[in-house]
Write a structure and sequence with these properties.
Number of helices: 7
Shape: globular
CATH architecture: 3-Layer(aba) Sandwich
Number of domains: 1
Strand order of the largest sheet: 1-7-8-6-5-2-3-4
Order of helices and strands: EEHEHEHEHHEEHHE
CATH class: Alpha Beta
């Protein structure tokens, strides 16, 4: 996996920091595929174990009224097929209602539980800050995912006295090393992954979500262009494609513990 730090220096160094397990959070089926499927394909190709957690069932998505009765099952099946195309088979759902997601303690409890179960090196999540340049990236559910995951990662996941019933059940506190955020403001992005070799896999995964694409050609053109723009922003050579993240150190060598 080739990565590059943007002018705002990323704290993550792929030559120094090993990644073996990643847990990815998203609001709806297809969010991860748009935001990070190229990076995920690169990770799984390198032997990294990647899991997904989709917080809502995507029940308010789609464009065809004929799909309403089956949209939840349809979108779950789409996400399963899309995930498989980038090497992911472990998918979890919190079954919140699409459009009603809030960073409340019910949601945070589920996030903390899953992080403590999987104990990932990287938690990947949607960004809690709104992107004013492209408001479509900042669906309220997206922001709620970012806020819930960020609140959970610190301090609840690493605090043994937060949600004590989890520790009592055997899910001990865990210090998350890294939080990678996607779909946030460009000015926050400090880490770029060259996904040129995985563009086809990413697009194939996105295409699986047929219930969500009223204009497939426009969607694909926008995704390809966005990745090329990211690569230019990163300083990659012409013709490359990249995904962009805001990488935050949660627990590193200089971290001072405290709840």
């Amino acid at each position: 996996m080739t990565s590059h730090a943007a002018p705002a220096q990323s704290p993550f160094n792929p030559d120094k920091h090993r990644v073996e397990r990643v847990l990815c959070f998203a609001a709806h089926p297809d969010d991860i595929d748009f935001g990070a499927a190229g990076t995920i394909a690169a990770w799984t190709a390198a032997g990294v174990e990647v899991s997904y957690c989709i917080m809502t069932d995507g029940d308010a998505g789609g464009f065809d009224p004929a799909h309403r009765a089956e949209i939840i099952a349809m979108r779950a099946a789409e996400q399963e097929r899309a995930a498989a195309l980038v090497g992911v088979t472990d998918i979890h759902y919190l079954h919140e209602r699409d459009g009603f997601l809030e960073p409340n303690h019910q949601v945070m409890w589920g996030v903390v539980k899953l992080i403590r179960e999987i104990r990932p090196d990287v938690v990947l999540s949607m960004h809690p800050e709104r992107n004013w340049n492209r408001i479509q990236k900042s669906h309220p559910d997206h922001l709620a995912v970012g806020e819930a995951v960020t609140r959970a990662v610190y301090p609840a996941v690493e605090n043994p006295y937060a949600y004590p019933e989890l520790a009592e059940s055997g899910l001990q506190a865990y210090k998350v090393p890294w939080l990678w955020l996607y779909a946030g403001p460009e000015e926050r992005e400090n880490h770029f992954i060259d996904v040129t070799e995985h563009v086809d896999s990413k697009l194939a995964a996105i295409h699986v979500h047929v219930s969500q694409h009223p204009d497939v050609e426009a969607m694909e053109a926008a995704v390809r262009n966005g990745m090329r723009v990211n690569a230019r922003r990163a300083g990659f050579p012409d013709g490359r494609s990249a995904e962009a993240f805001h990488v935050v150190t949660i627990n590193g060598p200089g971290t001072i513990a405290g709840f």
